[in-house]
Amino acid sequence: MTLPAVHPLILTIRFPEDKTIQVQPGDGGADYTMLKIYILILRGAVILMVICFFMACRRAPVSPVNMTPDGVAIKGYDPVAYVTQGKPMPGLTENEFVWKGARWRFASAEHRAMFRLNPEKYAPQYGGYCAYAVSQGKTADIDPAAWTIVNNKLYLNLNKDVQGLWEKDRDVYIRNADKNWPHLLSKK
Predict the structure, then answer these.
(1) Which of 126, 119, 121, 137 has the alpha carbon at shortest distance from 63?
(2) Could you give the number of structural domains in the chain?
(3) 68, part of any domain
(4) Are residues 81 and 52 in the same domain?
(5) Can you give the three-state secondary structure of 124-151, one letter per residue?
(6) β-bridge partners, 106
(7) Which of 13, 105, 114, 154 has its CB surrounded by the most CB atoms within 10 Å?
(8) pLDDT tens readout for residues 63-118
(9) E runs forming strands in the chain
(10) Residues 14, 44: one domain?
(11) Domain that holds residue 26
(12) What is d(CA 185, CA 108) in angstroms, rounded to the nearest whole number?
């Protein structure tokens, strides 16, 4: 069907099956009914396109904790070990603790107890998302081996290359990320 050719007194519509109808003001027959149906379908299609456009523009809300698909925080690494051992250590499933909807794993029951008493002290900043990405107003996954402790806070990065970039102007990136994080959490 092609769009209608409009004349001040006559409206002509050409359909794909080579049928043409002409509707004049005051017509009330079958052609007029077809025109009304066509206009309703066209309006519905336009409304549907507008709705789809706005839905595509919406951002999915950011989860407060970066998790694997099965709900494990920081890819199963022990957040306490970064602070107390000075290195990343894989956590064990038998030492899990659920906090903020994520399953946090720990290398020992002692680390789990420490985290349970003060999770904010040991949890990575920005929910365990890449600190550099958050400083840029985005989120990105992390590599547990790309980490830094600054003022007793754990910061994780996408990879070692991004960590090197982040280290070059770390204080500025931390300030930017601190400003961006609440906005990322509230975006919908």
Answers:
(1) 126
(2) 2
(3) no
(4) no
(5) CHHHHCCHHHHHCCCCCCCEEEEEEEEC
(6) 92
(7) 105
(8) 999 999 999 999 999 999 999 999 999 999 999 999 999 999 999 999 999 999 99
(9) 5-6, 11-14, 20-23, 92-99, 102-106, 143-150, 153-157
(10) yes
(11) 5-57
(12) 31
The tens digit of pLDDT for each residue in 6-15 reads 444 455 556 5
Q: What are phi and psi of 158, to 5 degrees?
A: -60, -45
Q: Is residue 67 part of a domain?
A: no
182 and 112 inside one domain: yes
Cα(16)–Cα(21) distance, rounded to whole angstroms?
12
Residues 49 and 137 in one domain: no
81 and 163 within one domain: yes
Contacts of residue 72, Cβ cutoff 8 Å, sequence gap at least 6? 102, 103, 104, 105
What is the structure's pLDDT at 37? 75
Predicted TM-score (pTM) of this structure: 0.69
* Interval 4-47: pLDDT, tens: 554 444 555 565 666 655 555 555 566 666 667 777 777 776 66
